[in-house]
Write a structure and sequence with these properties.
Layout (H helix, E strand, L loop, with lengths): L1 H38 L2 H8 L1 H7 L3 H13 L1 H15 L3 H14 L2 H11 L3 H26 L1
Helix pairs in contact: 1-7, 2-4, 4-5, 4-6, 5-6, 6-8, 7-8
Length: about 150
C-alpha cells in the first residue's frame, strides 16, 4: 500500500515539475519581448496603424495598447495595463468594458497556444474558437451600448 502511494506522489511531483519547466520556458521569453516592445514604444506605433480595428471594436485608439497586452500577455497583466491606461489616457467606461470583453476570451494567445501545442491540443482550433467568442461578444456589447446611448 505504501509503495503505491509513494509511486503516485513521485510521478505527480516529477510530472508537475516538467509542466512548470515548460511553462517557464514559454512565459519568461514572452514577458521579455512584451517589455522590449513597451520600452521601444512599438505597441504605440502599432495602435496608430490599427485605427480601423479600434473603430470596428468600438474602443478608442488608446485602449488598443492595453487590449493587445492582455491578448498577448494574459488577463492579469492586461487588466493592470487597462487600469494604468485608464488613468494615463482617461479611457471611458465603455472603452474599458469593451476592451475587457475582448481580452477575457482572448487572453494570452501566444502562451496558451504554445502550452496547448505542448500538451497535444490543436492550438489553431482553440484560437479560432476563442477569437469568434471574443469578437461576437465585443460586437454585441458595442451594439448594446450604442443602442442605449
Amino acid at each position: 500500500m505504501v509503495d503505491w502511494v509513494l509511486t503516485v506522489l513521485k510521478q505527480s511531483v516529477f510530472g508537475s515539475l516538467g509542466i512548470i519547466k515548460s511553462l517557464v520556458m514559454v512565459i519568461i521569453p514572452i514577458m521579455i519581448v512584451l517589455q522590449i516592445m513597451t520600452d521601444y514604444k512599438w505597441l504605440e506605433k502599432l495602435s496608430t496603424r490599427t485605427k480601423w480595428l479600434t473603430d470596428f471594436l468600438g474602443i478608442s485608439k488608446d485602449a488598443l495598447i492595453p487590449l493587445l497586452i492582455g491578448v498577448f500577455a494574459g488577463v492579469t497583466y492586461g487588466a493592470g495595463a487597462i487600469f494604468f491606461a485608464r488613468e494615463k489616457y482617461e479611457l471611458s467606461k465603455n472603452d474599458i468594458f469593451l476592451a475587457m470583453c475582448f481580452v477575457i476570451p482572448m487572453h494570452a494567445i501566444v502562451e496558451t497556444s504554445i502550452i496547448y501545442w505542448i500538451i497535444g491540443v490543436n492550438p489553431a482550433g482553440s484560437l479560432a474558437c476563442r477569437f469568434c467568442v471574443a469578437l461576437t461578444g465585443t460586437l454585441l456589447f458595442k451594439w448594446r451600448i450604442r443602442k442605449k446611448s
